[in-house]
Amino acid sequence: MPRPPVVAFTLALCVASARADVRLPKVFTDHMVLQQEMPIAVWGRATTGELVTVEFNGQRATAKAGDDGAWRVTLPAMKADGQPHSLVVKGNNSLELKDVLLGEVWLCAGQSNMGRPVDEAAAKAADQPQIRLFNSSGETPRADGLDETSGWIVCTPTSILQAGDFLGAGKGRRPFSEVAYHFGLKLHQTLKVPVGLIQANCGGSTARDWTPFPEAGAKLPLDQPIPKITHSDGQLYWVRLRGMVPFAVRGVVWYQGEDDGRNPKYAEDFKALIESWRKLWDRPDLPFYFAQIAATTYAGGMLGVWEAQQWVMNHVPHTGMAVSNDIYEGTTNGGFKRRDDKALGWPIAGGSNPHPTGKPRIAARLAEIALVETYGQPKKVLYGPMYASHEARDGKIVVRFKHTGSGLATDDGQPPNWFEVSDGTLEGNRPRYVKAEARIVGPDTVEVSSPLVAQPKFVRFGWHALARYNLINKEGLPAVSFRAEPGPQR
């Protein structure tokens, strides 16, 4: 699969300035969290040839600004100690950043679901001085990261309400991301270290919008505000994220996919995005955990997105998907209304909200993945049942699942629903499926058959944009839709 060109890190983005003052990208402010246990990069710009010294926690490094005014130093890795420190940068002038913590930093990115704000109850309880919040959107976005943002904010019940996306001149900011906050809170409560959360999202964005295509950067001014942000290949990377590379982060939490619903190449695009960010940060093993998109008919439904997300999890190392098919239930999103599909008679969601509530549940699942896969917490079941293989046998199809934990089950005690089989007869250019009966015959196995299909060859499960199926593992995580048939699949 061809990979898009990736922009290697270069300090050339910091253009020369007539001013003598040392300047830092706006990801460096008071109250920030620096990633523990990793080398700490600090960079900015100054006068050509100016010597710049950075001091932090007893460590010191010096660099000379190049012809373009750019400089960069790297401090050694340090361990979190829970104490506030000062970071001092000296050149022709001196900057002191106060109340700087060492801890765990995560980049929380994607589209509008990542931007959905914390609710009132969560905000009232958000007295968390060792959680720090940063949002990449600013009033004057610039690709060099020197634009005016709100900077790092100490998380309090008041500040979290003004720490999210910039709404426009005179309109302030939204509350901080609900998914990012609950994810970070779980990490902080478990690891007992400071946590820094960087929110970088934009509604309606695609994976390609966030991929660092160099031709997109070449069209943007690097030393002045960008008047208009559009949804085009690479632009969101350049205006929302570029100024933060290579700020050290432990990993990425990603919530995006709705606007790739009609994209037949989403798996390729998503894989390319992950690989490009890993190259930019020089971290081939950069953890990249993402939320499965919930059931919706938006953009034609998420069947292809679900398929692509599973493919990425299975083929791209150090990734993981938090399942979401159950996040409508038990939430107050206007009410989950049980109704049945007219053709099959199985339950479907009563609504098609592309922005479902219940996000603390998704955040908790993302945090559990990080705690086990990244931080080495005790092993536990992290994922819902996913297709592993199938075999046609004696007029039936036997489907094996992985991630079944202590065994397959159903959430209502009834036989599994939403299975269909096909003997390969085509309907148009696709196999024709009929409703099938299914039963759990082993801890990881379901047997599927239909009296209408004597010799089934293919099987699919939950293949409806709003399917509300009952198959789970005994740990309560819902299964993931699949189709097992020949032909192009994402």
Outline the secondary-structure elements.
Layout: E1 33-35, E2 40-45, E3 51-56, E4 59-64, E5 70-75, E6 85-90, E7 94-110, H1 112-115, H2 120-124, E8 128-135, E9 153-155, E10 166-168, E11 172-173, H3 178-191, E12 195-201, H4 214-218, H5 235-241, E13 251-255, H6 266-280, E14 288-291, H7 303-315, E15 319-322, E16 339-340, E17 347-348, H8 359-373, E18 386-393, E19 396-402, E20 408-410, E21 419-422, E22 426-427, E23 430-431, E24 434-435, E25 437-442, E26 445-449, E27 458-461, E28 471-473, E29 482-484
Parallel strand pairs: 1-7, 7-12, 7-13, 8-12, 13-14, 14-15
Antiparallel strand pairs: 2-5, 3-4, 3-6, 6-7, 8-9, 10-11, 16-17, 18-19, 19-26, 20-28, 21-24, 21-27, 22-23, 25-26, 27-29
Number of strands: 29
End-to-end distance: 13 Å
Roughly what is the average pLDDT, rounded to an integer?
91
Indicate the percent of residues in helices. 10-25%
Structural class: alpha+beta
Gyration radius over CA? 24 Å
Task: List unreliable stretches of 5+ residues.
Answer: 1-18, 330-335
| Residue share in β-strands | 25-35%
Characterize the main sheet.
11 strands, mixed
Q: Which term fits the overall shape?
A: elongated
Number of helices: 8
Characterization of this structure:
- Helix content is 16%, strand content 28%.
- By secondary structure, it is α+β, with helices and mostly antiparallel strands.
- Helix 6 crosses helix 7.
- The chain is built from eight helices and 29 strands.
- The relative contact order is 0.11.
Name its key features.
alpha+beta; 8 helices; 29 strands; disordered N terminus
Summarize the structure.
The protein is α+β, with helices and mostly antiparallel strands and 490 residues long. It has eight helices and 29 strands.
